[in-house]
Each structure stands twice: as structure tokens, then as C-alpha cells.
Amino acid sequence: MRPTENELRRGEEAVWGPRPAAARMRRVSFRPLVKNSLRGFATIELPPGLILRELPVLIGTNGRAWVALPRKPVLDETGQQKRDANGRPQYVAIGEWTTRTLSDRFSARVIELIEQQYPGALGGGAP
Question: Contact, 109 vs 116, CB < 8 A?
């Protein structure tokens, strides 16, 4: 059974406080590192005291910045990282949002916090 829109809003407000959404989320740090679409890593603190570290901050092909939750490498039985048919390393999510809307709102807020502290750090890729 999927939660209703009102249930989602109550859950968001319990974590992020009243609107504007994520008003109480706090950026702890941003470490720039430009490599392909990667622009760096953010560490943020959520109101209940949860700290999320090493959140990849990326720039999409459309030029917009977004934040992913951390992933871990997929390993084979010998401990080597698996690769897909195109030779790219495979990763698996270790956390995920229940809806795309929550993911997008979280990402937008983290990007906003980074841009407030480090104007231009993302090369104009903020939403």
C-alpha cells in the first residue's frame, strides 16, 4: 500500500521541518572533485541528528546539478568489482527514497545549500 500525499507531507515535515521543505537540513561540508560528471562530495546533517557523508554531487548532461545517495561496488566471488557489458563498474544502492518527488526535493535542497556556501562551485549547474 502506497502512502497518500498527506502522509508523505507529514513524514517530510517530521524530518525536514515545516515548509519550505528541508529548511532545517544543514550542510556540514562540501569537498570539490571534478571528474567526468562528478563535481564533489557533500556531507549533510538532517534534523534528527542523522549525518549523511560522501553524497556524490553530479552534473547531468542537461547541465543541472543533482545529488545521489551513496552506493557501494558490486563484487564478484573473488572480491573484484563487477563490470557491465560496456565495461563500466557496477554499483548497488545502499539507501533509496520511496518516491522520485522526495529524491528530487532532497537533491534540490542539498544543491541549494552548497550554492549558498560556495557560489559557482558547481559551474552554474544549480537548478
Answer: no
Read off the pLDDT of residues 86-111 as tens digits, 9 standing for 90 and up. Answer: 999 999 999 999 999 999 999 999 99
Could you write out the DSSP letters of every residue in 17-75? -SSSTTTT-EEEEEEEEEETTEEEEEEEE-TTS-EEEEEEEEE-TTS-EEE---EEE-B
Contact partners, residue 72, CB within 8 Å, separation at least 6: 91, 92, 94
Question: Distance between CA 17 and CA 25 in Å, rounded?
Answer: 9
Residue 94 vs residues 16, 35, 70, 73, 102: alpha-carbon distances, Å: 21, 22, 7, 10, 17
Q: Write down the residue that cell numbers 542539498 correspond to.
A: 110
Q: How much of the chain, in percent, has pLDDT values that exceed 90?
A: 57
In whole angstroms, give the CA distance from residue 91 to residue 44. 22
**8 A C-beta contact, residue 58 and residue 65:** yes
